[in-house]
Amino acid sequence: MAKRALKAKKEKPQWKQILQKHPPVPESVIPLLQAFQERYGYIPPEAVRAVARYTRTPLSQVYGVATFYAQFRLRPRGKHLIRLCQGTACHVLGADAILNHLKERLGVEEGETTPDGLFTLEVVRCLGCCSLAPVMMVDEETYGRLTPRAVDKVLAEYRKGKT
Amino acid sequence: MKVTEVQVGLASCGIAAGAEAVFNQFRKILGSKVVVKPVGCLGMCYNEPLVAVITDSGERFLYKRVDAALAKRIAEEHVKGGTPLEDFLAPDDGFFKRQVRIVLENCGQIAPTSVEEYRERGGYEALRRAIQEMTPQEVIVEIQQSGLRGRGGAGFPTGTKWSFAAQEPDPVKFIVCNADEGDPGAFMDRSVLEGDPHRVLEGMTIAGYAIGARFGIVYVRAEYPLAVRRVKEAIAAARKAGFLGKRILGTPFSFEIMVKEGAGAFVCGEETALIASIEGRRGMPRRRPPYPAQSGLWGHPTVINNVETLANVPWIIRNGAEAFARYGTEKSKGTKVFALAGKVRHSGLVEIPMGMTLEELVFDVGGGIPDDKEFKAVQIGGPSGGCVPASIAHTPVDYESITQTGAIMGSGGLIVMDEATCMVEVARFFLDFIQKESCGKCTFCRIGTKRMLEILTRIVKGEGKPGDLDKLIDLGYKVKTNSLCGLGQTAPNPVLTTTRYFQDEYEAHIREKRCPAGVCRALLRYSIDPEACRNCKLCAKACPVGAISQGDGPFQVIQQEACIRCGRCREVCPFGAVRVE
Questions:
Q1: Tens-place pLDDT, residues B446-494
Q2: Distance of alpha carbon B188 from alpha carbon B337, whole angstroms
Q3: To the nearest whole number, what is the mean pLDDT of chain B?
Q4: Does any CB of chain A come closer than 8 Å to the CB of residue B420?
């Protein structure tokens, strides 16, 4: 967790390269925030400022955008991001039980990161795999037809060092 | 019969079900001897991962739920040996029988981003015809005559929308493809973009020609990484083949398409919010008029069409408006794609002619309810839609009939619910979604939905008060009439339809503190049947609060005051002795 923040700090002098991939106009605010998040897993506060300066947009407006959209995260996240689907199909097929199980196993609430920095737990609305409900994604991998036991197996894999 | 091709369904849900391992297995065993091709979604999600084996005589064998081990057997015994594995073929269960595939005609049949394969099935023929043989006005008239209406939910006539933009004198115009599929429980647009992206690009280009735009934007959810990738690849391929770019097919018409990734906001499905988002601002809707077709993106005329709407366009130009209008009802022409999910046997992606009843959709196409449970309702239209009860499931699927039930057609999410679904809880679920997704601009949508949610939360917790129901309905109508955009205007629909059709369920929660479906945790009561209990004490060990102890005999009992209703005892009991009511 701290690693990502440190990385962001170290690379700050080179942020120009990230910024200059998009033209310095207000339309670039969202793609730039996405670019920073992709690089660091979150948007460092300094980057919000850099985007505002570069796109000549008021800082308040950029901050407004960064907090409006569900995708953006202003705090560093853990090594693996768990996104549990709470779409309608998942909900009807018992995603609540899976959520409670995850909370219990990880010892965190929604939006929090485990103390060892390994997992961040997030709840999302519909991953679009409704026929495999209940579903969760760990990083880019999707796991369907979940049961508490299947969740334990997945967590164990990542704890053993799966990347 | 020689096997010439093996197709593996590699859309998001196929991959989630493990199709990549299957694909790699075929590649490994068959090498370059047989074509092993990744295809999009066939729609049979309940049988994923799917593999189709195709012979030189054109015969098609469809295998269901294939894993790496079965893939090996198919490769050895069928592809190399020539003997199909009858036991593992997907049975003909009527899933495709009543479907009419226009939008999905290529999904799961072709390599998604290949221009050649798309063209083999008639792709880009419509574009050629439109720009070489028709005037823009003729294209618009053709679409108008087909009766095509917006598939994003509201059902505005597409040709009319185009004609508004075409009339504007502004030389700069835009086409936006709305692929911000945010409805929980819907994955139609994702499947089309993943399985047949060229169709959407072709539709956009034809629309561009019709209204006089030179630039198109696909606004797609960032949560669909595979769809984003496939669309980008398809754009590059189309440009290379000369179907995008300058002077397309030697005509003076030029058109470019770019992809813009959304950042996760349900409200951005609304036209004006979507425009604000592309312009780099918070996705908040503005007042209409002026409509985007007159003044949209950066103040220029902009036509915003849903993925499915645009995917219909090439078919209409290719086959003619009349052929399209043959399907459907008087006012709703063509087909509609639904993402069928929830308590239904054949969950997946289906395309049916308009006018089929909801009942036929659930039972004939969807195969009915699993575990012989009773069909209770369908939730149609996502969070803006409503619950249509089984008693009026004979309602035909067309814009007007669905609206009459209090729901809306919506973009195509269709969740089937059985007797074990609590309608009050479902209403609370949708309102919770809407509440979090409200952009906050209009007071009623921002605060009204919050108060409604508080009331519903109270009811499912068993703390409902008399008068709550009236308050909910009253607030619901106020939110409906005092909100600017579609989100707020339809936000109370799930509550208003459930209070209308399932009033007794609300009453049971409020007056009797009882959840008839056995879902609302706070209203459940766990007990141990002394007859069935074998006194193994597994439940007592599993109970996290120590609420289970020895009874007056060889059985365990639950102390009701201490019980937190987690249901753990019921999960661990090997004898099914824990009752819940």
A1: 999 999 999 999 999 999 999 999 999 999 999 999 999 999 999 999 9
A2: 7
A3: 93
A4: no
B41 contact A CB<8A: no
Nearest to A154 by CA among A113, A119, A125: A119
Q: Is there a contact between A144 and B16 if contact means CB atoms under 8 Å apart?
A: yes
CB B462 within 8 A of CB B506: no
Low-confidence ranges of chain B (pLDDT < 50): none
A25 in contact with B, Cβ within 8 Å: yes
Share of chain B above pLDDT 70, in %: 100
Nearest CA-CA distance, residue B184 and chain A, Å: 4
Query: How far, in Å, CA of B118 to CA of B141, rounded?
Result: 26
Q: Is there a contact between B93 and B367 (Cβ–Cβ < 8 Å)? A: yes
pLDDT tens digit sequence for A10-20: 888 889 999 99
pLDDT band at residue A1 under the 50/70/90 scheme:
low
Write a three-state SS string for B501-542: HCHHHHHHHHCCCCCCCCCCHHHCCEEECCCCCCCCCHHHHH
Name every chain B residue with its beta carbon within 8 A of the beta carbon of A55.
Answer: 280
Which fold would CATH assign to domain B525-580? Alpha-Beta Plaits (3.30.70)
In contact, B217 and B278? CB cutoff 8 Å: yes
CA distance A2 to chain B (A): 25
Bridge partners of residue A142, in order along the sequence: A137
Predicted TM-score of the model (pTM): 0.91
Produce one character per residue of B146-159: b if its CB has 16 or more CB atoms within 10 Å, e if not.
Answer: bbbbbbbbbbebbb
Say yes or no to pLDDT of A141 above 90. Answer: no
Q: Which residues of chain A make contact with B348, given a CB cutoff of 8 A? A: 131
Q: Does B342 reach chain A within 8 Å, measured CB to CB? A: yes
Task: Please give the CATH topology (third level) of the domain spanning B115-325.
Answer: Rossmann fold (3.40.50)
pLDDT at B564: 82
Nearest to B23 by CA among B4, B106, B14: B14
The residue with greater pLDDT, A97 or A1, is A97
A73 falls within a domain: no
Residue A34 carries which side chain, given as an amino acid letter? Q
Structural domain span for residue A105: 80-159
pLDDT of residue B314: 98
CATH number of A147's domain: 3.40.30.10
Chain A nearest C-alpha distance from B117 (Å): 26
For position B572, what pLDDT does the model report?
A: 87
Nearest Cα neighbor of B64 from B95, B29, B97 is B95
